[in-house]
Amino acid sequence: MKVAQFSRIGFIMAAAGSAVGLGNIWKFPYMTGMYGGGAFVLVYLITITFIGFSVMVAEMLIGALGRRDTVGSFERLAPPNQKAWKYAGFMGFNGLIIMTFYSVVIGWIFYYLFAVFSGLPTSTKEAKTIFDTLVGQQAGIQIFWHTVSVIIVGYIVYRGIKGGIEKFNLILMPSLLIILFGLLGYAATLDGFHKAWNFMFASDWSKINSEAIVRAVGHSFFTLSLGMGAIMTYAASLPKQASITKTAFIVTFMDTLIALVAGLVIYSFLFHEGAPAAQGPGLVFISLPVVLSNFGTLGTVLALLFFLALAFAGLTSAISLVEPVVQYLIDRFDWSRTKAVVVTSLVYWIVGIGALLSYTKAWGKLFSVGGKPLFDILEFATDSILLPLGGLLIAIFVGYVLPKTKVYAALEHEMGEKYFAVWRFSIRYIAPVALIFMMLNLLGILKI
Ligand code: PHE
Known about the structure:
The chain is mainly α. It has a single domain (8-442), classed as Up-down Bundle (Sodium/glucose cotransporter), CATH 1.20.1730. 77% of the residues lie in helices and 1% in strands. It contains 17 helices and two strands. The chain has helices at residues 8-19, 22-34, 38-66, 70-77, 94-115, 124-136, 139-158, 160-187, 192-201, 210-223, 230-235, 244-272, 283-293, 296-333, 337-357, 374-401, 404-447; strands spanning 368-369, 372-373. A two-stranded antiparallel ribbon has the order 1-2. A hairpin with a 2-residue loop joins strand 1 and strand 2. Bound molecules: phenylalanine.
């Protein structure tokens, strides 16, 4: 059973560290570019405000009341005749699925951290060749960096809640903030900044379609780390005196702010050089280095800082993706932390190799299903299907299954009666309806 508890600031940093990740700095900017800018951003902001925040409070609540691993918390809180709810706790395993590709991307970042020193590419063609060669041909190098990422993440998780997760978050998160806001300060002096601002905040509704909406909603869950038990697992170590509502608010706010800042920074650099916005997942690996190469030595420093921030963000999220499963194995089977970490890491290390091979020329066919690379399948399955499904289960469980008196007792003193009613309405009606609607939409998209 759990003994370790976060300090209050440790918990905020750990939850924020989980939320702020590759989703904010790598994925959000390129998705914004792919789905047309402002309108996508608006759907994302609306989802975060009206659904994401409420679901985060609900997910934290399950952890804080359950005080176990995800399966154990659901099982403990479910009424006696509804113990099947414990199966909802297996959403914790989604973290491992995410880690299969997440760790590969962290590996790319490590590779770039070193590549920066040998000079930045000066043309998009050159940059594209570097990225495409890495991803399409250099399986060995990718496996190496993926392995490095698995080992670092495994080591932090092995050190546990206090000595690993809390400690690293307390160092890495402030560093990330300093670097990112430093970059923003610099980006704001460029003439691309205005364009970037308009691109992100002026909505062009002609670009929005049902796919863009589904992706924006899915991304809101991904970026807030919702629907797979990461926040729930951390909340099981929530210090008793901490406020769930306040923490959820700070985390949601920070996460959104950082995504917007990352988008502004990247697009300012990009537009400063007149580069186009829609570039896909290669955005920060292809366009950004080229753009920064024009800044000479300063560019190298900026690129280094940028990839460092990206690595920090990725690592603090990765540990929260692994911890739920580790915690489950410890709680459930009495495994030692070491054994739990080793087994968990091996699983996603191996599948991760499959994911990275699915992008290579030599192995791509073997690791694709229906023409779709395993990497893309894993990414789409998690952020657009499994996380929203997890969010739906959390909303239903807290909104309908947990006795209202219990929920009220835990949250009323934090929210006050009025906000409690608003929050509960959102959990009972807005979130489920929106998520079910989104899933129906998804069926349409999958058919195509
Ligand atoms: N929120 C993280 C990101 O934005 C990813 C993540 C998803 C982490 C789900 C934990 C749980 O990169």
